[in-house]
Amino acid sequence: MSGIIKSEPFTLNIGPQHPSTHGVFRIKVKVDGERIVDAEMVMGYLHRAMEKLAEERTYTQNIPFTDRTDYLASMSNNLGYVLAVEKLAGIGVPDRGNAIRVIMAELQRIASHCMAVGAFTNDTGAWQTPVMWCFRERERVLDLFEMTSGARLTCNYMRIGGVAFDLPREFEPATRKLLADLPGFIDEIEGLLVGNEIFLARTRGVGMLSAETATNFSLSGPMLRGSGIAWDIRKADPYCGYEKYDFQIPIGYQGDAFDRFIVRLEEMRQSVKIVQQALDALPGGPHSTHVPLALRPPAGEAYARVEGPRGELGYYVVSDEGPSPYRFHIRPPSFINLSALKEMTVGGTVADAIVVLGSIDIVVGEIDR
Amino acid sequence: MTRQWTGPEVAAVAERLVPGAVDRSTPAACYLKAEKLVETMAALHAAGETDFVHLTNLCGVDFWDHFEVVYHVQSFVNNAIACIKVDVLDRDRPAVPSVCSVWRGAWMQECETYDLFGIRFEGHPNLHRILLWDGYPGWPLRKDFLSMPGGLQPGLDEFSGTKRREPPPVSVAE
User: Fold this and answer.
1) Could you give the maximum distance between any two Cα atoms of chain A, in Å?
2) Domains in chain B, start-ordered, CATH in brackets?
3) CB contact under 8 A, A47 and B72
4) Residue B24: beta bridge partners?
5) Which of A47, A96, A193, B105 has the most CB within a 10 Å radius?
């Protein structure tokens, strides 16, 4: 056939208004036939200049901004920021505050991975049913957040020196009930998808990344662990007392979209384990230390990172002894994970590009800030 | 626990690997000379004792009279992180060599720093304004980008004991 039918490359626009781009994100792909020969990312539709705004707000006033970067993991974002400020100002946190932070961060990971897994299966063609099952469980986590912080999505719960409120009395029984149900739900989702031939055909061998490539592209989180590198900030550089909890780091072996999916499922199981241990050993005492409203940390800089649901979530804060940060920089995991998008999509089909993008699990609020 | 390399420790290794690479060092960070940056970074990436295979964070900071570009690099095997910086003194035409040839993960972050600070990364394969649009007036994260369109200024003055920063110590181009 070659030589008879001639094909020439043309540009196909995916997004910005497209359900598969998970927000306002655009990929300009150049296709030759069905094969992608080039992919260019266009972003910034949601840019809100948070790093600039933060330079004119007090340290405490900046906490709500961090909710709105990665709106699917507001607790983890709060945590990363307050850890950076605490490191800068040398503020300690009571044991109970740390335990509550761990519980919230892990519940947030479960909620965020529910969303990631659901949206990913949606992208592979398992239309709507798995995503609704995932949303059902995510709703229950959000109910817990509402009970504790008053908000479901943008919680604004962590404070410099602790957390905003103590846990309400009904929190523990509701959480234990959820923890009892979650393993069954994860098994159900796994049974639904892992043995499914269509799902395997869509995800196995798609978006392959070797361990060296993943490292060189600065990837983190499930993207890095899916490629076989057991790197988790919670183990490597424990914060909030993570060294006290017994959990494992799941890794993949091939570095394809399926491995990243499996890593997320397994991380949810590990998070259930961590929350259980934290609830069992929840210490008494105060949940927060007193910190002045107009905090003025000593001049200097601090880089603190947490293992967010999407990877290494870092905050770099520079102080000049003023009431607001001199420089406030967010290291957004999904922005940097996107740098491998071209590497993973070129050579594949357009349908594979959608699966690859789903497996990165981007949140556009975090990419554009 | 991750080992945090201090500035002098990094400086000692960098100076041994690439003589004349280090500008100065503070307890928190090691300052490299811009002209030897890529060579030194490649050496720190390859050497077994440092093994900085992962560029975690790259960002710029504006100090009115000069910029700093901050690199946080880490090693998985040694479980260590280090902070390396470069001074950018020329405020009119700020430029730093790109480290994309060492870590391809620098690609996006250098674009972002260029977009918001106007620091050119020489040797970058495709340096463009990644978040804002081409032709956006000014570089928003510079300290002399004071007011937003419409003259709005977010205020700290509402809170007792908080005041806006003093005007810059150097003259600022409009």
Assistant:
1) 79
2) 3-93 (3.30.460.80)
3) no
4) B31
5) B105
Chain A, residues 321-340, CB within 8 A of chain B, namely 322-324, 326-327, 329, 331, 335-336, 338-339
Q: Which of B56, B132, B155 sits opposite A314 (nearest CB)?
A: B56
Instruction: Check CB contact under 8 Å for B159 and A323.
Output: yes
Q: Where are the beta strands (DSSP E) in chain A?
A: 10-14, 17-18, 23-24, 26-32, 35-42, 158-159, 162-163, 300-308, 311-319, 327-331
- The length of chain A is 369
Token pair belonging to A175 = 């959480």
A52 interaction partners in chain B (CB closer than 8 Å): 140-141, 145
- Whole-number average pLDDT of chain B: 81
Q: What length does chain B have?
A: 174
ipTM score over 0.90, yes or no: no
pLDDT at A99: 92
> Could you check whether the bond before residue A250 is cis, i.e. omega within 30 degrees of 0?
no
DSSP string, A74-107: HHHHHHHHHHHHHHHHT----HHHHHHHHHHHHH
We find that the CATH architecture of domain A49-368 is: Orthogonal Bundle (1.10)
Decide the pairing of beta strands B80-88 and B30-32. parallel
pLDDT tens for A248-291 read 999 988 888 899 999 999 999 999 999 999 999 888 888 888 88
Interchain contact B26–A (C-beta under 8 A): no
